[in-house]
Amino acid sequence: MSKAAVRLISVAVAAAAMAATPVATAVAATPAAATASASDPFYAYSGSEPLSSFAPGTVLKTRTLPYHVIGIPTPLKAVQLLYRTTDAQGRPAANVTTVVRSLTGDSSKAVSYQSFYDSLNPQDSPSRAIAGDVTLGGAIPNAEALFITPLLLQGYNLVIPDTEGQQANFAAGPEYGTNTLDSIRAATKAAETGLNSSTSFGLIGYSGGAIATNWAATLAPSYAPDVNRRLVGYAEGGLLVDPAHNLKYVDGSLAWSGVIPMAVIGVSRSYDIDLKSYLNSYGLSVYKDLQRGSIINALGHYPGLTWKKMAKPEYANPNSIPAFLTAMNKLNLGSAATPTVPGFIGQGNGGVLEGTFSNRPGIGTGDGVMVAGDVRSLARQYCATGSSPVKYNQYDLLSHTGATLAWAPTALGWLNDRFAGRTAPSDCGRIASGNSLAPEEPAPLS
Question: What pLDDT is attached to residue 29?
Fold first, then answer.
């Protein structure tokens, strides 16, 4: 990869990481720019045939519009598709993805870019930001326009799915994966995208985008073998592996503790679990406040928050709630299949820089929100159970936000090499040991 490309993507990632404040200001300044409102009929499937009658990846609607940044239309055109997919419980669902055609007209290669928009509000999705909607939670997908620029400049077609689905099921990894895989299927079926069954794909995503990227790579061999055959590899950073560990890791942290109620809400929503009866009055208040909140509403807003502060005394250990425990174990990547394509995984370990000082036995340290020992164990597991190379980089002095600066240029270069057909590097045999990824065990009531 050229020095200019490395420079460009480094600047883009830095801008994305720092963009929340200026974009939030633009939200207040440009209310008239929001064109993809909650009532936008494009998002609703209204056909006479039930969704179950369509194969996953079937295109249901198509539209072409200008690519918007902070509500401002650009000359770049985007094709948006409503397509049939599958939710966390295996039910048919409709979702939206966006395709941006290569600036060179090359249809042979595409990158599925999974956004880290992390929100419980469907209005904050990438497709709505691209269509012109401007929300506070949509600051992240708006800022990511800078992040995807290097991919476009290097000639890739881009596919940008709304990974969380139309209910914004935050942290529901399997659903992220099926939404991503069916987005690729849909993109290659719509004539307007220029993509086809011969197009090769790479997967890339950081943080929330890494959840979608890894679950897509994991599910592809069984759920979408047609897509799996065309994958050149997956590149991800800041990965959520075992959510039960993450909730304990961020418990009481200064910045990331707001992820606790977000995860509770997301899991409740995706698996139809009512967890409100286990919460105390304060927990219910936080739950209510974040029903449609994004990571911007949660990050740093609940310093020192713990599960115990939210739960009734008898449920001080979340493992005492059977339905929640079952859902947490379904989201554990350690219990899922091994990808069959090469992977690059980057992970920070300087979480103290973002106010997470936790170092519990069996969990250890991380980047502030993601647990480094979990990620190492998953990489080692893939090495032991798979036949594809795994490259693993750990950034011990960098936090979740800071690690993007080191990860992103390497990830892009790694993907470029996969598309070029070069042999994938492997760190198997050199990755330090990590945590047990065994399923969580039930706990008695306190």
Answer: 36
